User: Fold this.
Amino acid sequence: MTGLPVEDRALAAFLGLAIGDALGATVEFMTRREIAAEHGVLRDIVGGGWLHLKAGAVTDDTAMAIALGNSLVRRNGLDLTDLCEEFATWLRSGPLDVGNTCRRGIRRYIQRGLVTGQVNEGDAGNGAAMRFLPVAIANHRNAERARHWAVEQAHTTHNHPLSDAACETLAAMVVALLAGDGKAVAMELAEQLVGRYPTFRFVPYSGMSSAYVVDTLQTAFDGYFSTASFEDCLIRVVNQGGDADTAGAIAGALAGATYGLNAIPKRWLKALDRETVATIRALVPRLLVISDH
Ligand code: MN
Ligand code: MN
Assistant:
């Protein structure tokens, strides 16, 4: 895994996000016990789940990450109005699933033209963190700007200190991983988050995998730090159930950036929706050059 080019790691991170989403969506909102009864251990991208997905289809997590990526490329940087337009276009397209907080934020823009909301007690869901990845790729040479944009993009829908801290941390982790810094540096950043907000402590793992951003990061971090391959990481994360596609998307981004393209199981890459793969392949090189400006 050492010495991989940033292009490889960035593409693997984005495909990893989509694979975690597609794999986890099958068991989203299920308990560990229900998953065990129905699938034993879920290891393949088979679709289904509460959204009745075709095998390989992705959900709002990947769609919103792609929307953020599209806006960053179009504006050559973060432009909140353009980003909200992109989100609004997506919402109007009638996606299968939209988180409540995301829907409320996008509606606030459509109805009142506001690109950010006030700090809100109820905004500690994972909907801003799930789409953080493009800002890390677009700032792979600039960790400070990555942190800043991660929070700015978050506030279009979620304004809460725990969501902000999660977004910042994930962006900083992926910037480090894209540079080849490895898991030890990622662990230092996770520990800094726990130092600031002890509620994020993920060792020992609580087993909670809800849409609360704290639970989601604990689940993704547990899977990522307690395994040594892309495959083992994602299998561990999605089989926790709960918000499995979102924890899977976040863990897939971290694992992809760490282990690179060759570590992604071929059966998962093959199963992933082809249009999504093509979109991500076109987007990632364009995101990488934003960092040069
Ligand atoms: Mn989803
Ligand atoms: Mn989800």
Notes: The chain has one domain: 6-290. The chain has a mean pLDDT of 97.
